[in-house]
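My convention is simple: the sequence line spells out the residues, with the fold written below as integer tokens. I include a record here:
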Amino acid sequence: MTLNNGVEMPILGFGVYQVPQDQTQRAVEEALAAGYRLIDTASGYGNETAVGAAIRASAIPREELFITTKLWVQDAGEENTHRAFEASLSKLGLDTLDLYLIHQPFGDYYSEWRAMQDLYGQGRIRAIGVSNFHPDRLIDLITNNEVVPAVNQVETHPFHQRAADQEFMREHGVQIESWGPFAEGRNNLFTHPVLSEIGAAHGRSVAQVVLRWLIQRGVVVIPKSVTPERIRENLDVFGFELDAGQMERIAALDEGASQFFDHRDPAMAARLGAARVE
């Protein structure tokens, strides 16, 4: 996918959310060996160091990789953001970053964005964006700043499809990226009759159907696994195509609500806004 500043980003990558530190390096090494070139981590995941070790072990030329990490809420303030950015780069063992995201729409994210714009202007980051921003907060950020976020990473899967949000982002030049593409198995996703039937028609797994559905919608997606076979399987989604009827059947599964939590819930906003990571 070509972002709003001309930078190209793989439409399918590998995520490491909730992958333990002691399993991350092996999982990322497996992903890179399988052919993934987009790796998504975050300071809040606690595994940037292991991601960096896997990158070094791969010996893949840096220009072939697209590395994303995220800034946590506690690092608000321009000075803190600069410091957090340098800490993430050090853990990853990199000189530059391909994509840096504000992880949550809480706290003083305006100061974070000012610092990220500065780093972007210096060429330290190829693209900057946000995560978990609803349209109201996204347009507020766009309206009052110089750089339009290149990406907004949000919960997106068959039960919470974000079609209207995606169209809003498209109108403003923001690329939608999915976290939680499998809804962590909620609603019995992996045995869902509609998804299973579509998979059987193509000789593919439910996971492959979901990833293919997102890709055909133009959604960047970052599935996670620590199982080598599934890591390879999740990348093997470019040899088939869902037809219009199958896309419509999946569209009908949308429940229009999060399967996890609502970022607009005051209790959750307070909890995330106060969360601190080491």
In short: The beta strands are 14-15, 38-40, 66-71, 97-102, 125-131, 151-155, 175-179, 220-221. The chain has a mean pLDDT of 96.
